[in-house]
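#lab-general

N.A. 3:47 PM
ok so I finally got the sequence cleaned up, no stray characters, all 338 residues accounted for. can someone with queue access submit it? mine expired

B.Y. 3:52 PM
send it over

N.A. 3:53 PM
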Amino acid sequence: MTSHNHVYQKQGHLLLRQSAVLHNVEQIRNRTDRTIIAVIKDNGYGTGLYNEYTALRQAGINFFAVINAEEARQLRSFGFAGEILLLTPECSLQNCCDLLQLNIIFMLSSVSQAALLQKAARITSLTPRIHLKIDTGLGRYGFSYQNLNEIPLPLLNEFSLEGCYTHVASGTAHLKKQLALQKRRFDNALMHLRLAGFDPGMTHMAASPAFLLQGDMGYDAVRLGSLLLGRCPLKTSIDFQDAVSFQTHILQSRLYPAGSTFSYQAKKLRRETRVGLLPVGNGDGIYFRSDLSTQPVLACGLDFTLLDLTGSDLHDGDEISLMVNPLLIHNNTPRRLI
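B.Y. 4:20 PM
back already:
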């Protein structure tokens, strides 16, 4: 049955600038010679999985990390034969079997997941490749640093242990202390594995915030996501370029005298203002933020945004770029690699 419930005509485009991605990868490589694991989860952080994959392959990236089985399948469908790490536990036996046949690396974080991979291995006659996840304080996935004896060491002999990693709780106000604390816990877990006769393989801890503060931290790889797009989670002196923008046009502009009202809230203009109307708004995933564009934002509604164009040379029909969070942009908005 045909559905008539999805009618969209979006008035903008989300753009990913390949030159900026190439520049950002170069800046990262200037700071570390270790493996870059490019995290392109959630549809390439909203920029389009194929778009970000294409830009990063041009930059020489050959190791990717994704968030679910479908993203892993898509990367393989693009013709990528390199390394793909699944960053979340896979609970479906069928998916485990499929991913084994696609040569995907699993994140191992629990005894139940190990048992499921064991079943999939017996069905497919393939050996699961794994990166062991240690929870050192984020509290999301992984074997707890407080009880390393829970790691099913006998089962590890049935897998190909190719890596071991942890994730930093980077939202704390004392990130350097948190990094040091979690590093000690992670190093203890690595020692636990080695004393048990296991080579932990490729080690990695630094995601974007940790990398900005302390580089690769002495491990074999860095897992980077937002930094590849030039979205720096911390202030830095490193020259990263924002690779993402939202392109739309000015539908109309008009000069309003001081005291005129605008928006649903009937706010008053304090001075004579040239107001520009954009045909995009909350319904497109754009929200009222101070950094929305180079022009001050007056109001943002479901399908409109009002900008203060006073003193600018922008007029009706002109293209304009907005700073946006690509993860929030509507799925029906076209995404382009330029």
